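Bug report

Summary: structure tokens for VAS1L protein differ between web form and batch submission.
Environment: batch mode, default settings.
Steps: 1) Submit the sequence below via batch. 2) Compare with the web form result.

Sequence submitted:
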Amino acid sequence: LSLKFGDIGNLKGLVIRLLLTTSYYQLSVQNWFSLHRLQLLYNHSVQATFNVTGIHAPATYSFHCEHVSSLQRYDALLIPSSANDLSQLWEVTFIDFQIQGFNVQEGHFAYARDCASFFSPAILMGLVMSLILLLVLAYALHMLIHLKSLDRHYECKASPAYFAQMKDSDMGDEKEPLRNSGNESYELRNQQFGKIYI
């Protein structure tokens, strides 16, 4: 697959050549296409060659990636073919890259297989946080299961007031006659009992 820039200023002689292949995989029971190599040609001479990793999809799908680049900050899917090659002097970055080499219908891309890995940093962080929350929940359930109920229910009861028993022999000593109009009345000398006998 060759992309020509035509009459765009200094890019008139620049061509980007993409080498695509298809292979049948028995495990998935379908054909897959892969992008193996990217070449930059200027005025019909090869300027740089990059080996491509990680760009593959089922043949009936397209492949999409936010960044396909030779730079490390974009995971470097484009790798210079050799250390002595001029590819080291080039920095190539495709933004919002989508490709489909085979089974193109009506000039539109098919459903896209995205390059985002299942274990991206955000997904990994979410999995770790979920694991921590599950551990906390399991510990709380463990503590609830092993919680012992009290065998006795203690109630706060006021202690009954203590009244000393009075003997009949002592009653005579502790009584003092009260003088009234004809009735005999007695008053306890000891005030702690608080009772009056009439």
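Above is the batch result. After comparison, the two runs are identical; trailing whitespace caused the diff. Helices lie at 121-145, 168-174. The chain has two domains: 2-116, 119-155.
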